[in-house]
Amino acid sequence: MNLEKLFFAIEIIGTVAFAITGVITALEKKFDIFGAIVLGTVTAVGGGIVRDLILGYTPPMAFRKSVYAITAVVTSLAVFIIAYFFGKKIQKHYDVYSQVINIFDSIGLSVFVVGGVNSAIACGFEENMFLSIFVATLTGVGGGVMRDIMAGRVPKILRKRVYALAAIIGAVIYYLLIYYSVCSSTAAIIIGAGSVMIIRILATVFHWNLPTVKNLDE
């Protein structure tokens, strides 16, 4: 598998993973089937669209290649149908279900962060580390921010378990590995995406959160 095909596979995995989290959010907010599909699709392709606009790649890839939107729509519809018919059984195992969703969310974040750095490099910004990291982080969290705003809640990246920080760390690691040719591209992808996954899982298991100011109203 060449690098182009590998990144295409990565983006499809991320699209599926984020579409699932978008639909689950829609179900929690009692959206109908159309709303669930819209939210799932926006979550899946939103970050990539913002990334492409910042990099000056227009129209964005999501509109150039319909496979991304189609994948998001099909995934969203499938999840909605499963929830429609088996929702009560899923509710009985809510703890397990929550962990599964968190894993999908972490997968989507990790693969889109790596893809974001690669997109910046492919557009000729390899020497601009700040732009590469910024674009990668936005690619990873952008869809989730849109999802949360559309669902009427505070975006997760502003309040929960080092979400954006995990994306930044993973982007920095991947960028440095590629820029300095420390290892092969495949190994860099595994290490970069894996670091995001590990941080997110550890944050969930040990309930890591960034400091907040409490009791201001007292």
Brief rundown of the structure:
With 218 residues, this protein is mainly alpha-helical. Helix content is 78%, strand content 0%.
Total domain units: 1
Distance from first to last alpha carbon: 60 Å
**What is the helix/strand order?**
HHHHHHHH
How would you describe the shape? globular
Got a strand count?
Answer: 0
Q: Count of helical segments?
A: 8
Taking Cα atoms only, what radius of gyration do you get, to the nearest Å? 17 Å
* Largest sheet composition: none
**Low-confidence parts:** none
Mean pLDDT: 89
- The fraction of residues assigned to DSSP E strands is under 5%
Share of helix, binned? over 70%
- Helix and strand composition category: mainly alpha
Q: What is the element layout, followed by pairings?
A:
Layout: H1 3-28, H2 33-55, H3 61-64, H4 66-92, H5 94-122, H6 129-150, H7 163-179, H8 185-205
Based on the model shown, name its key terms:
218 residues; mainly alpha; 8 helices; 0% strand
Could you please describe the fold and organization of this structure?
This protein has 218 residues and is mainly alpha-helical. The chain has one domain (3-205). Helices cover 78% and strands 0% of the residues. It contains 8 helices and no strands. It has helices at 3-28, 33-55, 61-64, 66-92, 94-122, 129-150, 163-179, 185-205. Helix 5 (94-122) runs parallel beside helix 7. The longest helix has 29 residues, at 94-122. The protein is globular.
